[in-house]
Amino acid sequence: MESSRNLFLIFLALALLALVPRFYELGSLGFYGDEDVTSLPSRAYAETGESVFPSGMPYHRAYPHTILNAASANLFGLDNDFSYRVPSAILGALTVLLLFFMGRRFFDTPTALVAAILMALSAWHIEVSREARMYGPFLFFYTLTAFSAWLWAIEGKWRYLLLTLVAFAGSCVFHELSLIGAALVLIPLMFASWSKVKLIPLAALSIFMAGASYLYRELFVVPPFFIWQKESGTVSVPEPSEALTAAVDLVTRVEWLPEPIATMPVVAGVLFSVGAVLGLWVAHQCRTNDEAYAWPLRKAALCVAAALTGGLVFSGFLHGAFMAAIVFLILHPDGISKLSPKLLRPFIVLLLVSAAWLVVSTMELGLVAGIKELVMRPFPYIAYLLQMLMGVTALFLLALLYYAMRGHHREENAARACLLAALVPLLVASTLVPWGGMRILVGLYPFMLLIAALALLGALRQLGRWSGYWGGNGAAVLAVLIALSGILGGHGIPQAATVVNIENGDKLPALIFSEREFYPDHRGVGQYVRTNRQPNDIVIAEDPLQMAWYAGGADYWLKSLKGHAESVYKTPDGKIRYLYDRSVLFTQKEMADIASYKKGRVWLVTSGETANKIRHNLSPLQQEWLNNVRATIKPLFVGRDNASMVYCLNCDVSP
C-alpha cells in the first residue's frame, strides 16, 4: 500500500511540473486570437462593474471568468497582460492534479501519474492554460463534473452529488459545451451492475443538466445583446447578395452531404432511414439477456449506435459510421468472437453499400477526390487528432480497438467509461460538424490521456513479461520516462519548453486546437501607434479589438462584409460598425474619405494573424487597396512577427 509520504511527494512534483510551464514568462508576449474578447470586458468589469466591450455591447459569456480576470487585474494591474491569464493558468494546473486523482481512483497510481505528466507537459494544454480564454477553466470543471458524477453513481454517496452539481454549475457558466456533460452522467449505467444509483435519479440529473446548460445560455448569455441592440437603435446587417444566394442554395443543397446526393437531401433521408432500419435489425439480432437495472437505457443506446452505423453508411458518411460502430462494440457486453456470426451478413451488406458509394463518388469526382469525399465527410476529426498528437492518439486508438473486440469485464468498466466519454463528442462532431474547430473536442482530452496512459503501461507490462527484463515497477518507470521525453509527440519536456519559450513569429506547436499558424505581435504594432498617434489621427486596423487594447482604439475595420455580417451592425447614422468596438467597416466610401483626409495622420495596422488569409478576410476591392498600399508605402514599424505592420498613409513616406 502506498504511503502518504510518497503520495504527497508525487502530488508536489506534479504541482511543480504543472505550475512552472503555465506561469513561466506568462505575460512576456501580447494577446493573440480571441484573448482580447475576454480581456476587454474583464478590464471594464474591474473599472466599472459591468462586463461590456468598448462599443457598450454586454458580454455575459463565461461570466465568472470575467469576474476572476477582473479580480486578478485589480491585483496585478489593469494594463498587464499577465493579469488576465492568471485564472486560466491556475485552473489549468489544477486540472493536472484533478486528472491524477481521477486516474488513481479509477485505475492505479502509475496510470494516473503518466496521464497527469502527459497533461502537465502537453503543448496544447500549456498553451490553453496560458491564454486569457475560458477553455482551460472550462476543462477543469468539465472533468470534475464527470469524475464526481461517476463517483456518485458508483458509490452512491450524496456528497458526490453535491460536488457534481457545483462542478457542473462551473462548467455550465464557462462554456456551452457543458451540454455534453449531461450525457457523461449516464455512462456508469452503460455497464450492468456498475452503478449503485438507479436509472431514474441519474436520468433526472442528466435531464436537469442539459436543461440548465441550454437555459443558462438562452436566458442569461444571449438576451443582454438583444436588449442592448434595441436600446442603442442598432439593426443587424444582412450578408451581401452573393452570400444570400449561397444561403438560398442551401435549401436545395446540403453542403455537408456526400456527392452527388448533396443536391437531393430527401433521397439522403430515405437512404439513412433504410440503413437505420438495418442497424436496428442488427441490434435486435445481437440482443442479450440483460435484465439488470437500467437495461432499457443500455438497449436503447445499442439501438441508437447500430441505427447510426447503418444510416450513416447508407447515406455516405463512412467516417461517422465507423465511430458509431465502435461505440456499438464498446457498449455491447459480448466480444467480437460471439458477435461475428450475427454481424457477418450485415457487415457484408454495409461493405457492399460502401463500395457502391465509392463507385458513385469516384465516377462523380475522380478516384482520389471521390475517396476523400467519402472519408472526410463531414470532417475526419480522428485523423486530425492522429496527425497532431500522433503518439497519444495512436495509443488511444489501439486501446479503443482492443476493448471493442473484447467482451465486458467488470474491472474494465472504468476504461470503457473513459472511452465513451471521449467517443461521445467525437461521434457528434464526426456526424454533424463539417468543421467547427478542434476546440469543440476539448472535453475528450483528459479521457484520451487516461486511456493512452493505460495503453502505454499495459503494453510495457506485457513486453516486460515476454522479455523478462522488467516487472510492473519497471514498466511504470519506463512509462514515466516516455511521457517526459516527448517521443510520443505533443507531450513532454521538449514540447513544454517550446511553448513557454515561443517568440513572436514562431510557429505555434499546438495547432490542433489553436488553429493559428504563428504567434503574432499585436502588442508591438499597437504600442507603436499609441505612442505616436495624435488626437485627430485616424486608425484603420485589420484587428481593431487588439488595437482597442494596445493602441487606444481603431476608427475603421478592414474586413469584408461577406462572411462576417454577424459581427457588424448598422447604427442610426447609417454606418456599418464592428459589434465590439464601433469601428466603421472600411468600404469604398471610407476609402474615398480617407484619401482626402487632412486633419491628421492616417494609420494602417495590419495583423500577422490574417496575413495568409487575405482572400477570406478582405473583399476584392479591399485586397486591391491593401496591395496598393504595400506596393507604394514603406511600413514605419514592423512587428517582431515580421507580418504585423504599421503604415502611415499620408506622411509622405516613400518605399
Explain the overall architecture.
With about 650 residues, the chain is mainly alpha-helical. Strands 6-3-2-7-9-8 form a 6-stranded mixed β-sheet, covered by helices on one side. Helix 13 (about 265-285) crosses helix 14 and helix 20 packs across helix 21 (about 445-465). Mean pLDDT is about 90; it is low at about 240-255. It folds into 3 domains: about 5-225, no CATH class; about 255-375, no CATH class; about 520-650. The chain has helices at about 5-25, 35-50, 65-75, 85-105, 110-120, 125-130, 135-155, 160-175, 180-185, 200-220, 225-230, 240-250, 265-285, 295-315, 320-330, 335-365, 365-375, 380-390, 390-405, 415-430, 445-465, 470-485, 495-500, 510-515, 520-530, 545-550, 590-595, 615, 620-630; strands at about 235, 540, 555, 570, 575-580, 585, 600-605, 635-640, 645-650.
Which keywords apply here?
about 650 residues, mainly alpha, 6-stranded mixed sheet, 29 helices, about 5% strand, globular
